[in-house]
């Protein structure tokens, strides 16, 4: 808090001068209007480009229903974010990989991500700057709010992406045991690995749609002519789940050494079931420790107040009657 006051002290000294405060507010307003004009220019240039419109229409027509519902966002925010995409191939590939793990596999997902980041970084501070003259708050507080809104708008898409990756990974891990059991049954019934995964993907569409979508994409890659090992590696990189990584490694080793895939899947299913049992036992062992803090800070004060409150009040009343 003291460091913040030290940093805000020059701002307070500068805002004590009315002429300097008005000049600073006019400069911030001009900067906001200039940024808004640049953003509108980028949107108009992107929307008026016939080549980009044609490519976007082909992309939407060739994608699924999810891409068609997001075509409006791609049309307006895609050109804005296209100019903010990092130039480094490593950074661009890393962000694209994270978007794939979050379930966003459209070609314009990275442009949309940076477009949303630009929108959240510019629009809320601009709205606050326009509303600030009508609010009865000091200018230093208003400037701090504008800065906080800009920082929050810049960081919010990143937090959403990390949360989406974590949530999707949890859903994929939750549906993997059922998929393994079905794979074992299909493999022992005589189906090959590709046909078994296709059948499992069709059976899991209602109970585990995320995992079914990934398995269905694997079957589409196989139909398109991709090698079996390459498709499995892509499934591993696309999901980023440790259990799926272990499954892919086990299947690749089974293909390499020529062992039975059905027996390999059964052994991996047993190991995964034991791992889930150990995780459940670990969580159950942590319950007593986690319950200690609510007992101490929530239940124990209420219990002490109920049990010791009346005697303490009686002692206070006795002392007051005796004049003490």
UniProtKB/TrEMBL annotation:
Chief localization: membrane
Pfam hit, one: T2SSF
Organism, as annotated: Vreelandella zhuhanensis
Name of protein: Type II secretion system F family protein
Record's keyword terms, sorted: Cell membrane, Membrane, Transmembrane, Transmembrane helix
Membrane association type: Multi-pass membrane protein
InterPro entries named in the record: T2SS_GspF_dom
Record domain Type II secretion system protein GspF: where: 180-308
Location(s), subcellular: Cell membrane
Transmembrane segments annotated in the record for this chain: 20-47, 109-135, 141-161, 292-319
One Gene Ontology CC term in the entry: plasma membrane
